[in-house]
Amino acid sequence: MNSVLSAFPISPGAAILAVLIYAVACTLQGTIGFGSTVLAGPFLLLIDPRFIPGPVLIAGIVLTILILTRDGRQVHLDDIVRINLARVAGAGLGAVVLLYLSQTGLSIFLAILLLIVVVASGVGLTIEHTRLALLATGVASGFAGTVAGLSGAVTSILFQNVRGARLRGGLAAYLLPGAFISLAFVALAGRLTADEVLLAAVLSPGVVCGHLVATRFTTTLEPYVSKAVLLTVSGAAALWVLARAFWSIAVQG
Fold first, then answer.
1. pTM of structure
2. Do 142 and 89 form a contact (C-beta atoms < 8 A)?
3. Closest listed residue to residue 71, CA positions, set 2, 11, 159, 12
4. CA distance linking residue 191 with residue 135, whole number of Å
5. What are phi and psi of 216, to 5 degrees?
6. Among 28, 49, 63, 151, which residue's Cβ finds the most Cβ atoms within 10 Å?
7. How many Å separate Cα 100 from the centre of its chain?
């Protein structure tokens, strides 16, 4: 038993905390359509920086499949192809960034990227579904998804005025192919080791629990799960990650 635990990438206590955090985050995503990494990302980064980006991408793929199975609706195939072709370019750029970022650098980059997403969503930025907007969103979501697992938050800007099952199913349909693209580039950048696959497995109970709770109580939760609350918590967590990273640099310096 001790040899098994010693081979595990994190302690049992840290694993339980990560599962609880991710279960709450997946419940939110299962209710409003996005937000698992926006909410959980900063906290997981504080538990173990290796959770970002590979493990949250793998766990996010499982959650997206579950949501798509539940809320999938007819979508425009041409738009899905267009946004995910553009995502290849963004994912490639993200992979290059991962090659040169240290863990502290990744923490700072994630926090800044998350704050940009929080502000853009908070001010109600909307984008028309034009071909150029889809291409730009594809590049941006591919980059954000590969570096930090934040593709859903970026893509959700296209769905600012959509709610309920249409939002959840629509986002899932857009995001699933791109998540595999980002994961491939993360692997190419050397950020998907055996330990990181194990960390993804650690998050899997949180995915299942969160999805089951959201499915059972979506109608009850939806009026109370405010995007403003999600963005406030996420913004505060991102600021904490940023402060912690700069403090670490100052101490090391």
1. 0.80
2. yes
3. 159
4. 26
5. -70, -35
6. 151
7. 21
C-alpha of 63 from chain center: 11
pLDDT at 83: 87
**Calpha distance 168→215 (Å, rounded):** 12
Within the chain, what is the greatest distance between any pair of CA atoms?
A: 57
Q: Is residue 228 part of a domain?
A: yes
3-state secondary structure of 118: helix
Q: b/e map of 188-205 (b: 16 or more CB within 10 Å)? A: ebebbeebbebbbebbbb
Residues 6+ apart with CB under 8 A from 39: 24, 25, 28, 230, 233, 234, 237
According to the per-residue pLDDT averaged within each range, which of 50-64, 79-93, 214-228 is highest? 50-64
Q: Residue 108 and residue 246: Cα distance in Å, rounded?
A: 8
Number of domains observed in the structure of the chain: 1
Range of the domain at 193: 10-252
Tell me whether residue 5 is in a domain: no
Please say whether the beta carbons of 112 and 243 come within 8 A: no
- Other Cβ atoms within 10 Å of 61 Cβ, number: 18
| Share above pLDDT 70 across residues of the chain, in percent, rounded to a whole number | 87
- Tell me the C-alpha distance between 241 and 232, whole Å: 14
In a domain, 55, yes or no: yes
